Amino acid sequence: MRATIRPRSELDVAGQVIELVHRLAGPAASAEATVTRAELALTRFANSFIHQNVGETHHTVRLRLHLAGRTVASSGSVGTSDGLRELVERTLAAVRLGPLDPAWPGLTPPTPIPPGAPVDEATAYAEPGDRAERVRAFVAAADGLETAGYCRTAHRSSAFANSAGHSVRGQIAEAAMDGIARSGGADGMARLAADRLADLDGSVLGARAAGKARAATDPVELPPGRYEVVLEPAAVADLLQHLSAYGFNGKRHHEGQSFVEPGTAQFDPMVTLVDDPLDRSGPPFDVEGTRRAALTLVDAGVTAAVAHDRRTAALAGVPSTGHAVPGGAAWGPVPRNLRLTATSAEVRQPGSGDARTAAVVDPDTAALLAGVRRGLLVSDFWYTRILDPKSLVSTGLTRNGVWLVEGGVVTRAVRDLRFTESYPRALRPGAVLGVGHTPARQPDRVDGVWWEAPALRLAGWNFTGGASG
Q: Which listed site, 20, 200, 210, 268, has its alpha carbon 20 to 30 Å from 362?
């Protein structure tokens, strides 16, 4: 009979994995283990009805092993002592066949790491009815329009241990809601992420989506060209995601595949960009057990830093910034909790009057639009793809609402457009005409990853044709 072990905590399991490595491979092996218990729940709705409510709890263990100059990482489920032993044996067999790893940076030494912020228990242990209440409020606020979307909650408890004697534990809880309302074939969108489910108001989001959907009917065609734009937070989040993965990645920077030049004024002085995983709740360590802390990437337009894990930090001769991710040896370290803020509250070319209409859902966007002589209001980007990773020239489509702005006022809905634009170029010095005061946290497809973005007013954005072009 296979004996089942019920460890007291994830830290117990991580320590058990390290002990197994020492027993089977001897003291020459360097090992690190991360153990995570994840409780994920999703309430999905379509045609204005909840059609799916799912919840799952699972354990995973990730083992990285360095032996005889070779490094291998593997992962699997946790549940029995035999299962842990099989994981260690499988990893040992693989490392003996792996290529030499001359850039191995060694293990994180024992380091005091303060605990992260406490999680919100009402979010961590939310019931289906808690999420359904927000869905009901979203649907009701749409006032008869067809709606679809989801409300999700997540709770993760993680622990790390390595054979250098370092160990740490932490947890994270989060919630997100993303929905659309549809009117006459036009969609309006609203989405938000938060550390507390209580901070998601389904009524506010539903009314926002419905207002945008009604304002997006009867769109007109617009010719290709470079237009001044006001990007709402969802569209700005797409910029942050690609800047993070391709620009501020220490591996890509070391290989000469990033546009980033630390110490250079590559962005408009109004832009400050910070990766801040502990802004509210978040795990206090990365997958190498390195302490996480806020890292300023852009300071008043000047590129200040790139993210590092232990491997890229050793190559650069600097300490790790705590940005190691699973698979980082191939992909590199990635900042995954970016916040863009205005260096100054001043808008360069302020307008006058009130630009708020059904398409404009917050005072920040209204203030930015008021100064636009002729341009576009863009709600969201989607299906964006990188054409040139170094210059970050990207192509994609607008989605969920685009409007023509004339004299500071939204005048017509516009059909979706395709764009081709370099994201760093769009944020270059002199190109940012205004930054909203209130960032909105936008959820990513991956739990624990978010982009906190305000609305942005940019001098130009290159639209190359219709969505089908």
A: 268
